[in-house]
Amino acid sequence: MKDPRIVKLAQNLVGYSVDVQPGENVLVEMIGSERDLLNAIIEEVGRKGGNVFVQLTDRTVQRAMLKNATRKQMEIWADIDLNRMKQMHCYIGIRAGENVNDLSDVPEDKMKLYNSVYSHPVHSEQRVKHTKWVVLRYPNASMAQLANTSTEAFEDFYFDVCNLDYAKMDRAQDALADLMNRTDKVRITGPGTDLTFSIKGIGAVKCSGQCNIPDGEVYTAPVRDSVNGTISYNTATLYNGVTFENVKFRFENGKIVEATSNNTERINEILDSDEGARHIGEFAIGFNPYILHPMKDILFDEKIAGSLHFTPGQAYETADNGNRSSIHWDLVLIQRPDYGGGEIYFDDVLIRKDGIFVLPELEALNPENLK
C-alpha cells in the first residue's frame, strides 16, 4: 500500500511546485536509492500529461568520476547534459544519498573544475534560469542522524515540513516582500555580528514551495559594494562534502577581506575560486515554522525559523546585484534566543528580534501563524 504522505508530496511537487502542463518535458533526477517517491512522481507527471525523463545518480560513482576527470571529459559531460536540460520545461531534483560526505575527499581543484565547467552552465545558467524547478531531500537514516533523531521521528518531521500549506505561506510573505522592496539600509546585529548594507532597487522574491521543498524564505541581494562589517555564522555548513564551522567574515566595501573558520585555509581556497566569490549574491530571511535546528543540509537549514542566510557568490537574476561566480554558498545565522539572539533593522526600524517579527504587518510569518 502506498504511503499517502508520499502520494501527497508527489502531487505537490508536480502540480504546485513545477505546475506541469500537458506536453511539457520533466527531468527527475534522483540522487540515491529511493524509489517510492520517484515512482509516485512519474505516475503524477503522466496524469498531468507530461513527458517524464529520469536521471539516476549514485554519489559513490560520481565521486570516482570527479576524482579522475579531465577538463575535456568535463566539457563533454557538460555539453551532453546541457543539451538535455535545454529540452526540459521542468526539473525535479531529489537527493537521497546515504552519506553527505561522499565527495569530501575529491581534490579541491577537481571540485572547482566541476563547479565551473559542469554545474555552472548546466544548473546555474540553464536549469535555474530556463526551467520550472524544485529540489528537495528525501528522508533516510543518514538525514535522521544529522538531525539527531530516530528515522521514524525524522520521517514525521519531514512530511510535516514538506506537506504544509505553502499557498498560505505564500500569502503571508506579501508584506515582507513589499517592505524589502521599499527598503534601503539593512543592519544585522548579534553575537559577533554587526553588518550593514543596502538592498535598494534590487527587489525581493518570495519562496513558498515553487523551487525548494521545504521552503520558507524571502530573498534579495545587497548592493554589491555596500556591505561593511562582520558576520559570525552559528550554523555548521557543508560545501563540496566538507564541513565548516564557526565561519566568520569581515567585509570592506562589499568584499570579504577576512575569512576564518575551523578550516580557514580551505574556506579561503573556495572564496578565491573567482572574483565574485568574495562578494555576496543573496540575502534572505528564513521562517519555516517546523524547522528549528540545523542538520548540515542547506535545503532545510536556510529555512530555519528565525534565521537568515548571507551568501557568497552568484546572484540570482530575479534579485540581481550583478555578482557572478561559479559558487553560491548559503551560510546560515540563527537569531532565536537559544542560538544567541539577534536583530534585523530596515532603515533603522527593528523588524525582527530574536527570530520573531515585531512589526504587526509581518506577524503572519511568525511560527504560530504558519503551522
Automatic annotation (TrEMBL):
One MF term in the entry's GO annotations: aminopeptidase activity
InterPro entries on file: M29_Exopeptidase, M29_N-terminal, Peptidase_M29
Signal peptide: none
UniProt cofactor(s): Zn(2+); Co(2+); Mg(2+)
Entry keyword set: Aminopeptidase, Hydrolase, Metal-binding, Metalloprotease, Protease
SUPFAM superfamilies the UniProt entry points to: Thermophilic metalloprotease-like (SSF144052)
Keyword Transferase tagged: no
Family assignment from sequence similarity: Belongs to the peptidase M29 family.
Protein name, entry field: Aminopeptidase
